[in-house]
Design brief:
The structure holds two protein chains of two kinds. Chain A is α/β, with parallel strands linked by helices. Chain A has two domains: about 5-60 and about 100-130 and about 285-425, FAD/NAD(P)-binding domain (3-Layer(bba) Sandwich), CATH 3.50.50.60; about 145-275, FAD/NAD(P)-binding domain, CATH 3.50.50.60. Chain A contains eleven helices and 25 strands. In chain A, the strands form eight sheets. Chain A has a five-stranded parallel β-sheet with strand order 5-2-1-9-20, covered by helices on one side. In chain A, strands 13-12-11-17 form a four-stranded parallel β-sheet. In chain A, strands 22, 23, 24 and 25 form a four-stranded antiparallel β-sheet that branches. Classes of the chains: A alpha/beta, B mainly alpha. Bound molecules: flavin-adenine dinucleotide.
């Protein structure tokens, strides 16, 4: 907030003021952002920092935001809920008009958002970052009631789902089996289930060392697989059994009363505790607004994030189909800035800026044992495709590298702190 | 704003009431990614390594060395290999101007 302006910036500002601007640009542009999570909070923070003349409104029903990242650290008690919970006071102090309500509908033709409380908001450009919805029933028997017995912990809301999983682990007898159901791609946070498995293993090793983990996966491979499995063997021996889709790993049915996860070919796995990470789609507001296609996700222009189905609505974060980009908080963060810059440019009749999207996902495999993946992407000029920059990014090196793992666990903490401060600080 | 950081909130409010709002030239978008690991404005803090306020040529040289695999690190080589010479020059310029 106290950044001293570089000389160049002052000259730049003077130059802008001296240049005649078209009338339309003189009325403050109205940017409305729906969803105050990784995409939305990053978008409004960036918009206020970069375009002080733009009116920024954020619509978010929750007064407190619990992050998914670092939620897995609640399981072993490395983090407490308050340490991953944020208010919107910092964004208000930056000049964002924060409205705690749910967007109930979007009328793209007249550029208006209707809120559940009855209020309407007119916008010049809309940014939509509402996250995901669980596809209830995609796994037979997995509905809201089942999630109270077999938690997903994949949409944090007030954190209660993850805390339920922790309480179940605490209540479990030593020697029990903890079952995981893991979905096919695409889903929120590709390495997330495997970090969750790691944190459960760490808890079990400390407190219930005779217990086992059965990870039933719809896929044949997963993010940072070699690194995760090296770490699992080194830290947890044979505690974790991972079953891929081609070995009957896909869970198709659950029985919460019996504690059973049933796979494609009819194998019934009885478990003491079950973490069911179900198939997902874009959040309901995106689907109800007619922005999603039959995959359940929203196709967008990869340079501007404008939805293919509606002009003036830029969809970011997990709700969109971003080509090869993962559904991660860091991608939601960096793409939100391109979306805002494009939205403002298009509103002013200018060309959207050159784009580069950045991702890092750190994962904790154990105490002082961190691993990471880096990806850098660029879209093509007309926003029809996106590709990873050749020779860039990649995963942490494999091998017996304790100092690398220790440092990455520390740097993961620095990442979490930096990115959340950049969103909410 | 983290929930258990009330003193910081009060400080932010105090600062925001006096800080003037001036239009700054937008930072290069390539520089935005660095904020995810190097703290607000690249100033570090809470375990993050500061990169702001250093000599422009020094920042650029470090990034080029990371990119050429000539400087050891856990992750910066993988990061730097995603950026062009022009982007490296622009981010070095940007962070060198933050004091
Ligand atoms: C266990 C786990 C660990 C993870 N770890 C990492 C990690 O280490 N690094 C990383 O980069 N990513 C991580 N992720 C992924 C990351 O959390 C998501 O990619 C990110 O949250 C996506 O941002 P988003 O803005 O799309 O959605 P969200 O962050 O979920 O925000 C969506 C917001 O929109 C609001 N909303 C929904 N509907 C409406 C409506 N109708 N009106 C108004 N508001 C609405 C919601 O209340 C919510 O606050 C993890 C995810 C999980 C589950």
């Amino acid at each position: 907030m106290t950044t001293h302006l570089p000389r160049r910036a002052l000259l730049g500002a003077a130059a802008v003021l001296a240049t005649p601007v078209p009338l339309r640009a003189q009325a403050a542009a109205r940017l409305v952002v729906i969803g105050g999570g990784f995409g939305g909070a990053s978008a409004v923070s960036f918009a206020r920092r970069t375009y002080p003349d733009v009116q920024v409104t954020l619509v978010e029903p929750q007064t407190r935001f619990v992050t998914c990242p670092y939620g897995n650290l609640l399981i072993g008690g490395e983090r407490q809920l308050a340490q991953i919970t944020y208010t919107y006071d910092g964004l208000r102090a930056r000049g964002v008009n924060v409205i705690h309500d749910r967007a109930a509908g979007i009328d793209a033709a007249v550029k208006r958002v209707r809120l559940a409380g009855g209020q309407t908001l007119d916008y010049d450009r809309l940014i939509l970052s509402p996250g995901i919805a669980i596809r209830w029933g995609a796994i037979e028997g997995y509905d809201q009631a089942a999630a109270e017995v077999m938690p997903h912990g994949w949409i944090p809301a007030d954190g209660s789902q993850t805390l339920l999983l922790r309480r179940q682990l605490e209540a479990m007898a030593d020697g029990g089996v903890v079952g995981f159901a893991i979905p096919a791609n695409p889903f929120r946070c590709p390495p997330g289930p495997y970090e969750r498995i790691s944190m459960v293993a760490q808890y079990l090793k400390r407190h219930k060392p005779r217990s086992k983990i059965l990870a039933l996966d719809a896929k044949e491979g997963f993010s940072k697989q070699g690194l995760f499995q090296d770490g699992w063997r080194a830290l947890y021996g044979d505690m974790i059994e991972w079953v891929p889709g081609n070995r009957d790993g896909r869970v198709v049915k659950v029985d919460p009363r019996e504690g059973v996860l049933e796979t494609e070919f009819g194998t019934r796995h009885k478990v003491a505790v079950a973490n069911v990470i179900p198939p997902q789609s874009a959040a309901s507001i995106a689907i109800e607004a007619g922005l999603a296609n039959d995959t359940g996700w929203v196709p967008v222009n990869t340079r501007t994030f404008e939805a293919r189905a509606a002009q003036g609505i830029h969809v970011i974060g997990d709700a969109n189909i971003p080509g090869p980009m993962p559904k991660s908080g860091f991608i939601a963060n960096t793409t939100s800035k391109q979306a805002v810059a494009s939205a403002i440019a298009l509103h002013r009749g200018q060309t959207p800026p050159e784009a580069v999207y950045f991702n890092t996902c750190y994962s904790h495999v154990g105490a002082e044992y961190g691993i990471s993946v880096v990806n850098i992407f660029r879209p093509n000029a007309d926003g029809t495709a996106i590709a990873e920059v050749p020779n860039s990014g990649g995963v942490s090196p494999r091998g017996d590298l304790p100092e690398q793992r220790r440092l990455e666990a520390t740097y993961a903490d620095a990442w979490y702190d930096s990115i959340t401060r950049s969103m909410f600080g | 704003m983290r929930l258990n950081a009330l003193p910081a909130l009060l400080l932010t409010l105090a600062l925001s009431s006096v800080a003037p709002v001036v239009a700054a030239e937008p930072a290069p978008l390539a520089a935005e990614a660095c904020l995810g690991c190097h703290g607000p404005d690249g100033r570090g803090g809470a375990g993050a390594i500061p990169i702001a306020g250093r000599d422009k040529a020094e920042i650029a040289a470090i990034l080029l060395a990371f990119r050429a695999n000539e400087r050891p690190g856990t992750i910066m080589g993988r990061v730097a290999r995603g950026y062009t010479d022009a982007e490296i020059a622009a981010v070095a310029d940007h962070y060198s101007r933050i004091r």
